[in-house]
Specification:
There is one protein chain. By secondary structure, the chain is mainly alpha-helical. It has a single domain, classed as Winged helix-like DNA-binding domain superfamily/Winged helix DNA-binding domain (Arc Repressor Mutant, subunit A, Orthogonal Bundle). The chain is about 60% helix and about 5% strand. The chain is built from seven helices and three strands. The protein has a three-stranded antiparallel β-sheet with strand order 1-3-2. Strand 2 and strand 3 form a beta hairpin. Helix 1 crosses helix 2. The longest helix is centred in the first third of the chain and has 13 residues.
Length: about 140
């Protein structure tokens, strides 16, 4: 049985915040744009492992989905986000929002399969090749 990271990390907040900033009007964005936004925001370069584990967790609680080769923020997250939008310390508010979501091993199985189908490893590698950096 695969082991999962069942703890919300700072990198999960950074990934989610980058998704918020990179997403278009329907709440979706390609992985490369999300990673660029994380970098542009504060110099954060998320590793493939951080992205993969973050997506597993965010998908397991229904906050993110993969739609048409893009990552999409789901209504459950957008609704919860409205309560913290404009907070003085948005990163801290996002962290608290995530902490309120329980992570379970059972909830991680399907996201892991979907992320594999999404070919995250290939997309992350393409991002590195296009914009530089190392895995």
């Amino acid at each position: 049985m695969p082991k999962y990271n069942l703890t919300w990390e700072e990198s999960d907040v950074q990934l989610l915040n980058a998704m918020l900033l990179a997403s278009d009007e329907d709440g979706s964005a390609p992985l490369a744009e999300i990673l660029l936004m994380a970098d542009a925001q504060d110099g954060t370069v998320l590793t493939r492992k951080e992205v993969e584990q973050g997506l597993e967790k965010l998908m397991s609680v229904g906050y993110v989905a993969i739609k048409k080769n893009k990552l999409q923020l789901m209504p459950a997250f957008l609704e919860a986000y409205q309560s913290i939008d404009g907070s003085e310390n948005e990163a801290e508010a996002l962290q608290q929002l995530l902490q309120s979501q329980e992570l379970t091993p059972e909830g991680m199985d399907e996201p892991k399969i979907l992320i594999k189908k999404y070919k995250l490893k290939n997309q992350y590698q393409a991002y590195l090749e296009q914009f530089g950096g190392e895995e």
